[in-house]
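Fold it.
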Amino acid sequence: MENSKSIETSSKSSSWLLISGIIGLVFVAFIWVYLIDKKEVVAVVEHKVAETLTETKPILPEQVIPEIEVDETVFEEPPVVEVIEQTYLPSLDDSDAWLKEKLPSLTWRNELLKLVIDDGMIRRFVVFTDNFSQGIVAYKHSPLVSPSSSFSAIETQLFDDENQQEWLWDTNSENRFSLYIDLLKSMDSQKLIAIYLDIKPLFDKAFAELGYPDNDFTETLQRAITRILDAQLPKSPLKIIRPSVMYKYKDAEIEALDDVDKLLLRLGKENVLIIKSALLEFSEKLSQETVLQE
């Protein structure tokens, strides 16, 4: 009995194994077929979708990008605008107060400004310069105060052929102009020219009052400076006579010179050389500035 049960049991196990194997093979086959079919289906679908998109994609016309005109001036540097500072210009009658404020900036020797006559300064300077350019010394219209001491000469016991007593030139008398020379040397020529050009209309107006409405005062100023630059200095000591209260030069040619030339002789050789040097610098700078403004 036991053997028959074992055989039966063994038979049933073999049958189950066979059936399980068959089921497993079928399942594997199903999976294999399914996967292959799915991949093919996906590939086919993707291919169809691609064809559809290609067929339905609208064909757009070629786009033409319009040319945009660029204003190149936008990229150019803006023009430089020169800002010209306008100086307050007083009237000719009120110009003294304006000049009094400016004069201290022209020199580092402000104590020497006491030599300047501060009454009608522009008119005084214009009248004096106009006369000076013609060889005349207008002492009454001098822009500077007179020296505190007068000219002096050394008396001798010598007499000329005309029985005129001779006097020797006292070089010490040239020292009375020392403060004026110091004032001139202390002046800042560039600032002096700047102030002159600022108020030049007032100089021209004062010049017009003298009867020169169409003339440029700067030309007259340059002529006056040229007279000093061209002045000849004596090489030998000057001899003086005193036929009256006033001294005269013994040499008739020297005595016949213009008042301007004789004034320069009284200033002394060393002083005149300093004046020439200062005025030459001033004249050159003034000419340069005048050309730039034209």
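Residues 1-12, 25-45 have pLDDT under 50 and may be disordered.
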